[in-house]
Amino acid sequence: MQAFQGQQLILNILKCFSDSLLSGASCLLVVSNIDLKTNAPITKPSTFLKSSFRGFVLNINNDYRYMKMGYYVSLHAEILGNDVIPTTENAVDVYRPPILLTRAAKNGTPTTPFIVTDSVKQIMAEFAFPVVVFAVNPFSFNGFQIAKNRTALYRAVKSLSMNYRYAVCAHPLRGELVSVKCFFGECASEDDGVRAVARKVYETFKVPVCKLYVQRFNGGAHLCGLQPLKMGELTPSDVDLLSKMVSRFSGKGWSD
Amino acid sequence: MTRIACFVEKYNFTYSYEAEALQTFKETAQKLGHEFHFMFRSGLSEIPKYEAVFIRATTDPLYTAYLVSKTAWELGLKVVDDPISIRICANKIHQYRLFEKHGVPCIPTIFLSKEEFHHRQIAEIFEVFGKPVVIKAPYTSFSRYVEKVSCETSFREVAKRFFRRSDYIVVQKFMPSSFDWRVGVLNGEVLYVCKYMMPKGKWKHGMKKRGKPSFMWGRTVTLKRDNAPQRLKETALKACSMIGKGLYGVDIKEVYGDYVVVEVNDNPSIYKGQEDLRDKDIYEKIIRFLAE
After folding, report:
1. Which residues, 6+ apart, have CB-to-CB distance to B285 below 8 Å?
2. Shortest CA distance from B87: residue in chain A
3. pLDDT-derived band of residue A142, with 50, 70 and 90 as boundaries?
4. How many angstroms separate the CA of residue A7 from the nearest CA in chain B?
5. Which residue of A has its CA nearest to B11?
6. Chain B: residue whose CA lies nearest to A167
7. Beta bridge partners of A217
8. Under 8 Å CB-to-CB from A41, ≥6 apart: which residues?
9. What element of type H or E holds B170?
10. How many CB atoms lie within 10 A of CB B159?
């Protein structure tokens, strides 16, 4: 079953690539701030931003947040008229929890219920404790807190909303909250449900590198949030795995 | 009958001229037979109940207004401002790159990345543009995060501040003028035209008072849209055509008889007695567009 799902994922990736070839883009360029071991044509973001490359751009970055280098790589590719993974639209949407959950649910991913608010009273009226609160502003890497009581919830909302300047996204914590590193929709989890969520999220947003937050309850896995990976969180084995995925994507092989 | 939600934040009701304009939107919608409700942050779950969403709170992909816009868009509702317009207008790098690509006349611009932020690059910028130059953060709005600098020390100080949130910033040639044209555009048609005057002795429409937290704004002089220069209107429409078919406010400078675009803003200010002074039908046109 697992092998079949892996093959399906590769087929999806290849289909995406062949679609881009059909749409006129003739070659692929990998733009990455990570030292990947691949034979595919690869360049650094700063070099790419000065180029006028025409073709398909695969943007591999640990962080695609709005106004960060990863975002500007995708923006530059789009302005040049190229197909790019991920698109700027997806790069913005994927880090905003309510949009992530709305779009993922539309595509059939199981998600946790949520509300967007800056009112602690509204959160308490909707959900019982414990509650997971995600920041809707994407300024911090680990922008979520678990609140088990009223005081902790007040503290979490005040801090994550940057003193009530932004809204927060609150979910009930109904089971175990797990985080998994995700590369092209593949993750190292033992849980079939978590792996299925990771694949669905990639299918919807095409964000090659991310960290997923998934809640396991009622025998299923439910998407809860997504955040960028810190550079320090990428282990050598992660970089190897990512390099393999990029090589498969480009069809150029992997270099040791 | 269309059910219209108007997304606002508390600050939209701070000044009477803005609150009155919002009230006029409501009355106009009701006169035309539509429902018009103000929606605040806590009412986001009610978006599916409406058929159109009109955003009046400040838009930026990092603000709640973008969540409202994108959610409404995903649900297939008519929405002003749409998420694409917000993404382009809220990021000046995105916008100027599009202007460059499509040949929209705009102020000479250089994009500066964090990696290129060094002495040689700054010296080169001063050499090309002369002194002073204007530094803009990509997320500028309401004249904030736009500063004029004349030496490397202040250049470094301002750029460093703007680099905190963005890996790229905009540097532009300083083009002084006593006013900026503001052309309101809706669905590819000019809605209103006015002049945003600079306060006396200042170089931009809104300036912080020295030593005080408050802002001072220049006067707004409104013209009838039919009386505004044709070339001005054409320039505004060309700039908006790069972005979309929504509601925009185009800032334009007149330089030796030529018109150069300063920027296109989504979610433009519409205040009672200012933008609506000469063309009273702007409320009706916007409501009709939402209800289409």
Report:
1. B186, B191
2. A89
3. low
4. 31
5. A165
6. B64
7. A220
8. A27, A28, A29, A30, A250, A252
9. strand B168-173
10. 19
Distances (CA, A) of B161 to A26, B114, B123: 41, 11, 19
Q: What domains, with CATH codes, occur in chain A?
A: 2-91+233-250 (3.40.250), 94-227 (3.30.470.20)
The residue among A159, A168, A141 whose CA lies nearest residue A65 is: A141
The C-alpha R_g of chain A, in whole angstroms, comes to 19
The helix/strand/coil state of A64 is coil
**What is the reported pLDDT for A24?**
42
What ipTM score was computed for the predicted complex, to two decimals? Answer: 0.91
Query: For chain B (length 292 residues), average pLDDT per consecutive 10?
Result: 95 93 96 96 90 95 92 94 95 94 94 91 94 93 88 95 93 93 96 92 78 80 94 96 95 92 95 92 96 91
Distance CA B198, CA B217 (A): 8
pLDDT of residue B256: 86
Handedness of CA A147, A207, B96, B243 (dihedral sign): negative
Whole-prediction pTM value? 0.89
- For A169-192, how does the pLDDT look when each residue is reduced to its tens digit (9 = 90+)? 999 999 999 999 999 999 988 899
Measure Cα distances from B233 to A187, A222, B184, B251, B278 in Å: 54, 51, 9, 11, 16
A116 and B41 in contact by Cβ < 8 A?
A: yes
Read off the amino acid at residue B220.
T
Measured in whole angstroms, the distance separating CA B196 from the mean position of its chain's CA atoms is: 13
Report whether A17 contacts A45 (CB < 8 A).
no
- For residue B173, the cross-strand partners are B133
Strand partners, A234: none
Query: Which of B40, B44, B70 is best to mutate for the A interface (most A CBs within 10 A)?
Result: B70
CA–CA gap between residue A235 and residue A35 (Å, rounded): 12
Choose among A230, A223, A228, A220: nearest CA to A99.
Answer: A223
- Rg of the Cα atoms in chain B: 19
A189-233 pLDDT, tens per residue?
889 999 999 999 999 999 999 999 999 998 899 999 999 999 999
Write down the pLDDT at residue A22.
40
Cα separation, A68 vs A63, in Å, equals: 7
CB pairs under 8 A between A and B: 81
Q: Which residues contact B7 (CB under 8 A, 6 or more apart)?
A: B39, B40, B53, B54, B55, B56, B57, B65, B68
Q: Whole-angstrom Cα distance, residue B277 to residue B288?
A: 19
Non-local (6+) Cβ contacts of A47 within 8 A are none
Going by DSSP bridges, is the β-strand pair B3-7/B35-39 parallel, antiparallel, or unpaired?
parallel
Q: How far is CA A100 from the centre of its chain?
A: 9
Q: What is the pLDDT of residue A6?
A: 46
Taking only the tens place, the pLDDT of each residue in A28-50 is 899 999 999 988 899 999 999 99
